[in-house]
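Margin note from the TA: students keep mixing up input and output lines. Inputs are the sequences; the output is the structure of the whole complex. Example:
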Amino acid sequence: MSALLRTEGVRKAYGGVHALDSCTVEVEEGMVAGLIGPNGSGKTTLFNVITGYAKADAGQVFLADRQITNATPDKVFAFGIGRTFQLTRIFASLTVLENMLVASPNGRAAARKRAMDQLEFVGIAGHHAELAGTLSYGQRKLLELAYVLVADPAVILLDEPAGGVNLSLVNTIAERIRELNAAGKTFLIVEHNMEFVMGLCDQVTVLDSGSVVAAGPPDIIRTDRRVLNAYLGEDLDPEDLDPAEEA
Amino acid sequence: MARQIYQAIVDGILVGGVYALMAVGLTLIFGVLDIINIAQGVLVILGAYLSYQLSVRLHLDLFLGLLITVPVMFVIGVVIQWAFIRRLRGRERTSMTLLVSYAVALIIEGILYEIYGPNAKQLNASYVQSSVHVFGFYLSYIYLYGFALAVAIVVGIYALLYRSRFGRSVRATMQDETAARLIGIDVNRVAAVTFGVGVAVTAAGGMMFGATNAFNPNSGYDLISRLLAIIILGGLGSIGGALAASVFMLTVESLVSIWSPEWAIVVFYAALVVVLVIRPTGFFGRQPVRAQ
Amino acid sequence: MTGRVTSTVSRQRAAAILGLVVLAVVAIVFPLLFPSPVVTNYAVYALIFVAVVSAWNMFSGFSGYISLGHAVFFGSGAYAVGIAAKDWHITGVGVFALLPLAAAVGAAIAVPFGLVALRVRRHTFIVITIAVFFIFQLMAYNLNSFTGGTIGMSAPFLPWSPTSFNDHFYYITLGCAVIAIVMAALIRPSRFGLQLRAIRDDEDRARGLGVQAMRVKLTAFVLSATITGLVGGVWFLYLTQVLPPSGFDPLFDLSLVLMAFLGGLGTISGPIIGALIIEPGQLYLTIKYTNGYLSEILLGALFLVIVLFVPRGLVPTGGEWVRRLRTRGRPAVTPVQAQAQAPARAEASDAPAKGAKR
């Protein structure tokens, strides 16, 4: 089965810094894919390139075998890729419900209903009339998830959905992702929270310094030497590591 | 006809030097501080009036008078930055600095009107009226001195930015304010001093402008439009670009004036719009690194 | 608790509607209460600015793109009526039929203007609007045969007495103001308005969610320009003349910005309040100190004061004060209710993040 979302040989440099170097990532349809790697490995840059917030210097991005390289963000959205941001980006001066309506493609009444449904789904429906700027960090993350969902994208890119969020909320988010995945949505998730990633993802890709060092199921990745090198910076034998010390 | 064209080119280059003096300060302020200082036009006029006072009341030579007006304008710049602009923060910061400096410009203009009235003045000196005849062209002494002054100041600012410790702080702040803070640079002081320097240069620009043009408090509008066009064309933040763009734009205007003096200024506005739309970083400018 | 909230909300609603009705009645009978042309003159100018600031706010306040070039539409509307009246030999009351032309001219100019100017960042946008403004002012001065150059254009004579002249214009400008306010009020909560305001908060994010930013911005820009052009035409007929520096007045846009900021950028009532507070003052100064530049100084000073001390404007800040007064002494959530809500709020138990961004 050909991958639904695919990047091939993507390169992106900021000045002298090579954020992405020949990056090839594949996400199969219906999969929950994880993208991990140490800080500065290029994860968010890859997201930016895929979703049109950054221009690739070289390489291509495919969605269902259709080239979408360097498409603008609104086109990428129209193609069916939704995305959240590491630092939540919401419309602070609009209410929670209004935030939802911005993204919604339907007419009035239908839009409201759908929006409220999504808010229910993530659990913040009670706040629908409050200004989004007054939400707590965790609530904002949920709102972002909600309005990315409202346009019913086929592929959802989540940038650190569990970052800086308390445990019960993390579990809620993981549950929602599982539910959506069961309904047919494909996910690509950037995360530092290893438990979250390993517990949720079918496949994990590891980036280091802009290129892929390993890709495979979580169990394999967890003990892959290259992955440990990437994170810890030295050549280690995984068997030498005490399980309690693992990242 | 050909002679007219050549003279126009020569005039344009020389006058461009004068405008470079005014533009350099503006581009420095934007390049380092992300501040669009609309008041620059009226500050030039203020500098002209200061030179006027010194020249008329104390009979000081125009260039000597700069020894007083430059520090005075520096202080005025620091005060403006410290009192009004420093507090502006947030995502809309650059837009707000534009509006705030516009307000400051209005106040200064109003005060100048109250003090001096609307009648035009011009600075005078022995060398203002006379010119030297070279290769069949007339080169006014004042323009020659002014051009030399412009070059000297541009060189001086380069030296400041690239050879001094303070200059390093300025460049660091320009690249990344947070990082600069982290390594101990007093960003507020850098901001105040940079703004002060940018305004201090207008003292020289003002003197030159006043010596070569009749001016009244209203002259600031015309001036700031041209200066904006020049610095955007030359690249926001690029000092060399400001010099090049000044010479270029003034030469073009000078040439257009041969055919139509009233419309000549439209080249500035048109250039401004065209460049902003096609290539917002100007021709020499760096990529704007900061997000909007 | 829910019951109480609903009744508070509906009580607020009732109060707002009552307030509007009172306001409408006062507005309609105003000239009868104050028949003096001096007073109605102030009222006409105030209403002109209420209309234009509301129109300006409809674009700049909602989208965050500060325009300093709306004088382009205002002056063009004025000149359009003047030139058409002259060229088509229209006299008397018939000139009012030219007002739609003024509106259309505003819209027509806004389309290319917007297409060019709205592609750049916000601070660059402001600079472009300034440049275009000066281009238009220059054209007004230089295109002598078309615009009358420094002499400008004069409006045809209207056969009304001074009092009825002012009264007629009072109702006309009232109508314009109502149109502008209603349009803004309809736009704000609509999907179009939400997209516009989302653009203000985070344009890239809005784009990433499928908002056609250029289309949305341009539409708002054109709507705003249409009303501004219309009012420009009305102003011309009221003043009976337009000159390059009056039709294209560099202080015009700054006054709009000031009034909108004072009242509250992006609100509906903000521009109204801002205009009603500042315009009479400005007019008074212009009349009293015809030679002075005091109004300029005050305009600048007032702007600085507002930006530094009341940056969000009176309406939002005032609203916050009222809210604080009302909840003074009372905790936001009583302990018993907090416990009852705790399980339901399990997912939202993080410490509150920073408050709303300005």
